Amino acid sequence: MTAMEFSLPVRVYMEDTDAGGIVYYVNYLKFMERARTEFMRQLGFGKDWIFSHDLMFVVRDVAVRYRRPARLDDALSATARVLRIGGASLLLQQAVRRGDDELASAEVGLACVARDGVRPRRLPQEMLTALRAVQGDNHQGEPA
Amino acid sequence: MTAMEFSLPVRVYMEDTDAGGIVYYVNYLKFMERARTEFMRQLGFGKDWIFSHDLMFVVRDVAVRYRRPARLDDALSATARVLRIGGASLLLQQAVRRGDDELASAEVGLACVARDGVRPRRLPQEMLTALRAVQGDNHQGEPA
Amino acid sequence: MTAMEFSLPVRVYMEDTDAGGIVYYVNYLKFMERARTEFMRQLGFGKDWIFSHDLMFVVRDVAVRYRRPARLDDALSATARVLRIGGASLLLQQAVRRGDDELASAEVGLACVARDGVRPRRLPQEMLTALRAVQGDNHQGEPA
Amino acid sequence: MTAMEFSLPVRVYMEDTDAGGIVYYVNYLKFMERARTEFMRQLGFGKDWIFSHDLMFVVRDVAVRYRRPARLDDALSATARVLRIGGASLLLQQAVRRGDDELASAEVGLACVARDGVRPRRLPQEMLTALRAVQGDNHQGEPA
Q1: Are strands D6-11 and D55-66 parallel, antiparallel or unpaired?
Q2: Residue B142 has pLDDT above 80, yes or no
């Protein structure tokens, strides 16, 4: 079984574009974060759940590959799926697509920390269970 | 004596533009905020001073008029000067210029509040004195 | 009959917030532009229609009033309705609300220009007809 | 001889922050682009030179590592230096620092294309010469 992919529709507005007439490359990361947020919300881990558990996810590293530009008014989808689950970290595979065309893809490494933004926190058991359920069997070795 | 105008150089980068090939109109407000911040810092009221006095300025209203577009790589100046000083508020006249060309102008109304973001706070005497000194005699009636 | 109000759901993501813990005040203008764009699209005037008629709308002036802050994860609505229709211009009333709470409101003045961004263009008859239909009878005097 | 590093002062304003009270991680990429732009300008390749040669640089991939957060009002420096020069591409090492503290670092891969944004273009000889001069001897093998 492969990992389940979450997908969020994203419309391109003027705010997202640049003088090249295309989506400003930095903004794909915003689309991907929207998808991550809704993915976690759908799993039951919206802001209230996360904050009430004194957690926060911070981005540790991002590697993005840009393939094709998106343009004003495009109807895109931003996706997220779980690549690897660590004790206090999470690696997601994300993409921005227009139809079947992959415009940009990224691996996004997140650390789970206390809300002070500093101390690492283990992913709660409830979250681990839910993330593993959507991860399928594309486990890439042991938790990091 | 007219009010002293503070001016901050601003360079236009790709991040500031939109698919129209010009500076995205919303971003002039960012340029103006940078100018306000440096204006206050020059008067002695940088972030540390303001926070240590349990103050914060919040924007209450903005009226902007757009005249001419700025373009990628333009060397602009963003300006600020005091229009009116109230007990717990401040009205600034701001502009974005390219040379002598005024590209956009705005009146920006700020409220002085406690750092909880809610309770109004009177402008401290030291700030009043400094602001009046640069306001010149273009007082428009009584403090609001 | 009052003017019809168009409303677009907007979710607040991290990208929209600032260090005050609230939505960065400049970003309400982005929410409002999304609503304008979808409002025009619903009336039949999406990007393709507008561009194929060699038209473009540019913002001439904006007056915003901020009342209450929006916060991370809020489910907001951004609204638009027609206040005044001119020969080559349009005045919209817009707001950002959380439930019944109006967080920010604005009057946004748009000019209709050729795609060179300079020459004014009259609103096409088809657009005039559609805009008047949703304007109801809150005409504020003659077209500007 | 090591590669020369270009450094641009960057001040953190409210527009750059998020509800975590720190610089929104996406915005480091903007700081880095500002540094790239000024780096190229200093070498003699400002927008006018680049456009008059029918060139454009597009970002092909970015890998960022976040180490420590920047905060409101921080005085940062954004840096750029040449890692590798290809026939129609360029790999830069970039960082954002506060004093000696590296807050974020990135490798940014750029492709040189015609201004249609599609056809690859070889780096002009004049640009190659200038880039090699600041690259020092940290050549990492052959041009890609």
Answers
A1: unpaired
A2: no
Instruction: Give catalytic residue positions of D.
Output: 18
The predicted pLDDT at position A137 comes to 63
Torsion-angle region of A76 (φ positive above 0: left; ψ -120 to 50: alpha; else: beta): beta
Q: What is the pLDDT of residue B34?
A: 98
> Which tokens sit at B105?
């102008």
Distance in Å, alpha carbon of D95 to nearest chain C alpha carbon: 21
Whether A140 shows a pLDDT value over 80: the answer reads: no
Give the integer Cα–Cα distance in Å for D95 and D81.
9
Please give the mean pLDDT across all residues of chain C. 93
Which pTM does this prediction carry? 0.94
Q: Which residue on chain A is closest to D118 by alpha carbon?
A: A68
Q: ipTM, 2 decimals?
A: 0.92
Count of beta carbons in the 10 Å neighbourhood of residue B87: 12
Q: Please give the pLDDT value at position A143.
A: 45
Interface of C with B (CB under 8 A): 20-22, 25-27, 29-30, 33, 56, 58-66, 69, 117
- Per-residue burial over A114-124, b if 16 or more Cβ lie within 10 Å, else e, is eeeeeeebebe
The domain segmentation of chain C, as residue ranges, is 6-131
Q: Are B75 and B99 in contact (CB under 8 A)?
A: no
Residue B142 CB contacts under 8 Å (≥ 6 apart), including other chains: none
Residue ranges of the alpha helices (H) in chain A? 28-42, 47-52, 125-135
C-alpha distances (whole Å) from B70 to each of B21, B77, B101, C54, C102 are: 9, 11, 10, 22, 32
- How far, in Å, are B78, C113, D28 from residue B81 at the CA level? 11, 32, 30
Q: Does the active-site annotation cover B18? A: yes
Structure tokens at A127: 């979250």
Q: Say whether D18 and C19 touch across the interface (CB within 8 A).
A: yes
pLDDT of residue A1: 54
- What CATH number does the domain located at A6-131 have? 3.10.129.10
Sheet of A6-11, strand order: A6-11, A75-85, A89-98, A101-114, A55-66, D55-66, D101-114, D89-98, D75-85, D6-11
Distance CA(C51)–CA(A19), nearest Å, equals 17
Residues sharing a CB contact under 8 Å with residue B39, sequence separation 6 or more, in sequence order: B6, B8, B80
Question: Which pLDDT value is given to residue C118?
Answer: 80
Q: How far out from the chain centre does Cα A130 lie?
A: 15
Per residue in A76-128, pLDDT (tens digit) is: 999 999 999 999 999 999 999 999 999 999 999 999 999 887 899 999 999 99
